[in-house]
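hiii, so i know i said id send this last week but things got crazy w the move. better late than never?? heres the sequnce for the chain we talked about at the cafe, plus the structure i predicted for it. fair warning i was half asleep when i ran it
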Amino acid sequence: LAGWPDNILPADPVFAILRETRRTLRKPEPPADATAPDAAALLDDARHAWMAIDTTTIEETGLCPATMHTTPEGSYAYRTLTMWECGSLLRAVLAAGELGLIETTVMAARIERILAVLPLARMGDHRLPSELISSDTGQPMSPDFNVFDTGRLLSALAEVDAHPATSGAAAPLVASWDLAQAVTEGRLHSF
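okay and structure toks below
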């Protein structure tokens, strides 16, 4: 995981120049009349966002639809999740726990439930996370592996493992994947 970015970024030297330029650019000063965000308003926004996740979570999987579209005529849920969205969901659960929107024990239990349904899909001889899964069942919905979406998931799984309440919970899942099989000529590949 530590060398993951090195294996997906192009070797073109212009990217090193771009990164160095971005790193050394002076950040603009905020306008003199800018006010700090109101902490209570930000926490209220977080509660509202968490409510959307909490009310649409499927109890059996711990997953929730990727998007919900509500109109006066009714609601529509997109019930297919990418690994990117699974990573975002894990981060949302961690944030809800850290902000006190849910108890730490509830946060840990929700994360365990999500990790338990992330499928190990077979792609030829490779065991990797499927590109798409069902929010209702956690079952694979695609025979493909997406390295970019899985990268987002891996970074969220590293945060799960780093959190005191879920320390090491994701490591067995990641160890069960044949990520090395997705490396060709030193670079990770989707297939």
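btw The mean pLDDT is 89. thought thatd interest u
miss u guys!!
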